[in-house]
Amino acid sequence: MKHILLILIFCASMMASLIKLPITSVDEQNSTVTVNISNIDVGMSGFVVHKIADGHTSILKNVVVIAFDESSEVATLKMTPYNDLRNNSLPVGKWKVQVGDEVQLAFGYTRALMIAPSEEIYHRVSKAVNVQWIHPDLFATILSFRGHPTPLKDDFDAFAKSASVGLLYIYLDQKLYTLDIRSFKILNITDAELTQDSVKLPFYSRVEEIDANWFGEGSSEMKSYEPHYYELLKEYNKDNKEFLEILKNKQDKTDDKH
Question: Residue 141: helix, strand or coil by DSSP?
Fold first, then answer.
């Protein structure tokens, strides 16, 4: 157990620092930019920052790392509109992303949310990983406000924006998945062989009941912990070979029982 916890602490510290890189090329047609870096995880998210004048900058786009070439040490990032601070009463700049603008990645990676099936597992893992934990009670409150007792990807997006959270940890089947909460891409999978005696749905929190909408996606009560989160991970990590192998092994074990 001690070895597992040391690995978790090391992985968290490696992902905690904000990464700032100059853009080396811009492809407006495909909405991508490239940066030079010796190593980076596909799925890391951030922003494009444009310098307006000395001491003044503006965020132009959201970005997510979609590819990394180890031989050339070039990362490709996909741009999408930035609307975290949208205000219809304020003017919007017309600056375009250009070579020399700065990409800032791993924003909010010092703050994290954990989805765990029980209080015991939540406390064991949270004590081992050195980040600022945002308590799942807050996420449960947002779910109740949105009427979603079954969490959706959009709910995690809303929480990331409101709480400035960068990382999401999900505990499933004695493994801890570390995700970029905005892209929902798996950054790391760590063995964490902890005893699971109980399951609280939709995850451990001290909120007794999450309000539900009358209808719509996410409005139904969550019936089972693992299948829901496996499906969410699968939807956004279809190219992650390690995760797909875990799913295959899980399915093979299920088939063997039958």
Answer: helix
